[in-house]
Amino acid sequence: MSSLRVRSAVSPLRRRIPGLTEPAASPARSVDSLIASLRPEDPVHCIRPDVLADTAASFVAAFPGDVLYAVKCNPDPAVLRALWAGGVRHFDCASPNEIVLVRQMFEDAHIHFMHPIKARSAIREAWAAHGVRDFVLDSGAELTKILTEIAATGVDGEPGLVVRLALPKGGAVLDLSGKFGAEMDEAAALLRAARPHATRLGVAFHVGSQCLDPLAWRRALDIAAETIAAAGVAIDIVDVGGGFPVAYPDVEPPPLGAFMAEIEDGFERMGLPNARLWAEPGRALVASGGSVVVQVQARRGDALYINDGVYGSLADAGALNFRYPARLIRPSGAEPSDVDTGFSLFGPTCDSADAMAGPFFLPDDVQEGDWIEIGQLGAYGACLRTGFNGFDRARIVEVAAAPADPVTVPAALQTLAA
Q: Is 357 within a domain?
């Protein structure tokens, strides 16, 4: 089938792939027909371009500024093509490999180097080879590094400089307050130091991943406003980061409009009529557009042993105990039980830590040889796959959005459209 590609681990960032700009010739009609045809014994990642494009278009229409897709969330070329089709033109990149991938696919893309700590060679390559002009920093040392390495390239121009602001620990599922960010006084000093060198100057923050509280953005914008006032310099960009949540079986976030209302109100209160808003969504754009189909290799009571796990695409199901929607696929035509049971999952490696507590609710007669489609895995799924223990083989297929598949249009997409 021409839409299938066998890849090892995170291949888009590890090797050149021909035909990056072209979609698959013929997307599979449905996941069920695909599994019936292939009967795969390796995991199959299913990408739904139509869902991704629609979700991106909804977010771009709702956000009053520039939407920078966080490439780390899912760098698959099919995903990037779908987001481009949905209107995304800006990309948040954190490494030279991500920058190369995006530039190779989209010559006219706006690429922003949003990692606060960068290798010197990465700065030079981004600036001179790929036309990247925006850089994030959170220390004086990084500011000096950026300016020094840009000058060393001999390529003229002034960079866009964005200071990453530290936030207090919040209530997001995955807190991001500990690794990056300058405290308010330091951030104000950095803004003053950067202003003479910047063609545009900004402030950025991140409230944490999968943040369910719209007021978190209001509080962060208040901190940013206080920092800008202390700096006393003109600001061109306010970057509200990512963290926009999606729905999972045990999580129903507020509608997207609630987050946008807090951001718009907080930004208006900052009194920066000439500044531009940025956002860096990842999960909110792509979670609903991907799934993985795994095969049951053994059953022991309420535990299922499957061919994917925490060293593959289910890292968050293990480390963070995320629960995902799951459904049974039984191509034989045998009707499954209409009684559901909550199952735990074990991955294929020899490591006993390769476990996912769930529970994942499936028909109670699930058995060895059945397949399971696990949804909401367009984000932080295939991109986290490793080669540990030799279990690095997985197929990737583009699938036409089919209403018959219950994970095709999950609550997350409905939330974005609300």
A: yes
pLDDT of 27 reads 73
Give the separation between CA 142 and CA 180, rounded to whole angstroms.
Answer: 12
Over residues 96-121, the pLDDT tens digits come to: 999 999 999 999 999 999 999 999 99
Q: What pLDDT shows up at residue 65?
A: 97
* 132/203 same-domain check: yes
Among the candidates 286, 309, 337, a domain finishes at 286
Query: Residue 416 pLDDT more than 90?
Result: no
410 touches 370 (CB < 8 A): no
